[in-house]
Amino acid sequence: MSEDKNNQNKKDCPLCKVSEGTIRNLEKAGNNKKEKYFLKKERKRQENSAKIRKEKIKKIIKLSFISLIIIFIFGGAAFAAIGYVKNRNFGTAKVEIASLEYDAGTISMADGLVSHAYEIKNIGEGDLEIKEIRTSCMCTTARLRVRDRLSREFGMHDNPFGWSEKIAPEETGYLEIVFDPALHGPSGIGPVTRAIYVSTNDPDNKNIEFILTAKVTE
After folding, report:
1. Calpha distance 71→77 (Å, rounded)
2. What is the pLDDT of residue 38?
């Protein structure tokens, strides 16, 4: 019975987590010693709480700093992308052509089709829009290739209304033409000149004419 009673006396105080036996010993030792004990305990608790708060504040500041860096990086990238798109939409396109003419030399009707690609580079700040492609003769067809995109085939009469393709700034497109020297038969033998017409949104080069020359033999 005495052991059970002692165990009950040893239960912790819900306020300070100090056993009742310790409290009685402090009471016997005098109020001053008891007060010093609790003051020391309270001071330690406050120091621990202050340390925890300080660590929390450090973490919050660190997370805020990291968040600001992320916002700055991604925000800057977003503004740069918006500016780039804005320039592409509202900037001026400018065409640069490596060569407007191609001489296929002497070609035989028996040798089949002759092909060539003209380079069309956009050195402006806005998208270069190719609005129309047509040829001067049914013996000549043309297509526009931009990266992995290849347009439909255009000819003298096959020119759908409303078609267009864009070449981005600093990008190069290729006007791929095919000439059939045998299409006209014997009447097509001799020097020939064919033209490919391209319309663009470049204010200084709204209409561009590419030339193909050759000497056709049997």
Report:
1. 10
2. 65
